[in-house]
Each structure stands twice: as C-alpha cells, then as structure tokens.
Amino acid sequence: MKTFLLQIYTPNGKYFDGYVEELLVATEEYVLGILPNHAPLVAKVIVSKLTIITANSKKKYAVSEGLLQVKKEEVTLLVDAIESKDEIDIERARRAKERATSRLANRVNIDIARAEKALIRANNRISVYEDE
C-alpha cells in the first residue's frame, strides 16, 4: 500500500517522523482519515484520539490541541502534547478527572473554562489508555 510522510512536533521537539498508510485525526469539524494523495488542507486539531496506521501496526495516542497541515505526500502535525497508551500515567489522569469534576460540581472561585478543558484532557487520556 502507498504511504506518506508524517511528522509530529510538540514544544519539546519532534515526536514522530516516519511513513504511514493512514492517519485518523479529529478537527473542529470532522474526524479525518488521511490517506496518500489527500487533498491539501490546514485544520485545527482538537483534544482527541489520534490513530496512526502503518503496514505493521495501528497505534493510538492522546493529543491536545494543535494544527494539521496536509500536502500531497506529507502531513505535519503540531500539537501541544501527545502521549501513547504506554506513556499515559493512568492514575494521574484519573486524579485529574476527579479534581476537574469536583471543581465543576462546586463552581466556587474557579476558572470554569479551565476546569472543563482539564476534564476533556483527562477523559481523552483515560479513553486512549482503556481502548483496545
């Protein structure tokens, strides 16, 4: 099967650089399936599950917000953070979910938008970790 170059960058540097068969990524409007020769586009990536498919594997990651650029044979993804299932500290994610849920339930002297975003990120990590 045909492949395309995928490069993923975080503020800490290059996270992934390799040829893949398919990329599944969520944007503000759609969940996109990127294949070789995809139409060029630029889109905002949301906190979500990202799937990278190669000839030998299908790996899932938790990603934060970012930017996706698709060219004919190359895709670049710039994200604030990305974690594979093996990199996720599940207990930390569960504690973060509990804190955010508690803050949102009480709604006293908190930044509601910040707590909502924390809850979304925690739920995303838990979902990727628990996904088979």
What does this structure look like?
- Helices cover 27% and strands 42% of the residues.
- By secondary structure, the protein is of the alpha+beta class.
- The chain folds into two domains: 4-85, Sandwich (ATP Synthase, domain 1), CATH 2.60.15.10; 88-130, Up-down Bundle (Single alpha-helices involved in coiled-coils or other helix-helix interfaces), CATH 1.20.5.
- The two termini are 24 Å apart.
- The model has no long low-confidence stretch (mean pLDDT 93).
Spans where pLDDT lies below 50 across 5 or more residues: none
Output the number of helix runs.
Answer: 2
Largest sheet, strands/sense/barrel: 5 strands, mixed
CATH architecture of the largest domain: Sandwich
Q: How many β-strands, per DSSP? A: 10
Radius of gyration: 16 Å
Shape: elongated
What separation lies between the terminal Cα atoms?
24 Å
Superfamily (CATH H level) name of the largest domain: F0F1 ATP synthase delta/epsilon subunit, N-terminal
Tally of individual domains? 2
**Which oligomeric state applies?**
single chain
The amount of helix comes to 25-40%
- What structural class should be given to the helix and strand makeup? alpha+beta
